[in-house]
Design goal:
Number of strands: 8
Order of helices and strands: EEHHHEHEHEHEHEE
Strand order of the largest sheet: 5-4-1-6-7-8
Distance between the termini: 9 Å
CATH architecture of the largest domain: 3-Layer(aba) Sandwich
Shape: globular
Number of domains: 2
CATH class of the largest domain: Alpha Beta
Largest sheet: 6 strands, parallel
Structural class: alpha/beta
Radius of gyration: 17 Å
Strand content: 15-25%
Number of helices: 7
Helix content: 40-55%
């Protein structure tokens, strides 16, 4: 039985128009390279050679773009209705994101949803999605088997699955479907059938 749900933010609940071209340009200049940094965060860690100052500078460059994007985000698929429905069923509700805390706070304030979440974990707390999910589970004091993880990236559902959570992949036009068995939705309204 589901007792809690952990949502990814960007691509699942909202759409952030982040200028990744500018992020890539600025990071290439910082690291003096010509290739794109993909996947972004693991590549930054690798190129920084665990230098805290380089990592901090890199994340600050990304955060600047995320803050700009947070002024123009779009709410996806009746997200507010779904969040309120989940809360009305007395389920624990968590949010995990790879966005910085400053952008996250602006989005949460604009949506006026801070009271809906029992746990909110940003990139500033952990840059590892699996760790973000584990921290969320600790905060809501639930077993992984009691929690549903919903994200729009294969990495989101893989991370939840590794811990033992139930998972749903919100399919979008960018992400491929995972190689393992996973429930899929195209619209957040479809979550109602799992509650």
């Amino acid at each position: 039985m589901i007792k809690g749900i952990i949502f990814d933010l960007d691509g699942t609940l909202i759409q952030l128009p982040i200028n990744y071209n500018r992020i890539q340009k600025n990071l290439k200049e910082l690291f003096n390279i010509s290739n794109d940094l993909t996947p972004l965060i693991p590549t930054i860690i690798k190129l920084s050679q665990n230098d805290p100052e380089k990592i901090k500078t890199s994340f600050n460059l990304i955060c600047q773009e995320e803050i700009i994007a947070s002024k123009n985000f779009k709410i996806m698929d009746n997200a507010m209705e779904i969040l309120n429905l989940i809360k009305s069923k007395n389920l624990s509700l968590c949010l995990v994101t790879m966005q910085c805390q400053n952008a996250l706070e602006k989005i949460i304030d604009d949506l006026q949803i801070s009271n809906l979440f029992d746990s909110i974990i940003s990139r500033d707390i952990s840059i590892d999605r699996q760790k973000q999910i584990e921290l969320s589970l600790q905060k809501i004091n639930l077993m992984p088997s009691e929690v549903l993880v919903i994200g729009d990236r294969i990495h989101d559902v893989e991370s939840g699955k590794k811990i033992g959570c139930m998972t749903i992949l919100k399919i979008n036009e960018i992400e491929k479907t995972p190689s393992f068995d996973c429930k899929k939705i195209h619209n957040l309204v479809e979550i109602k059938s799992f509650l």
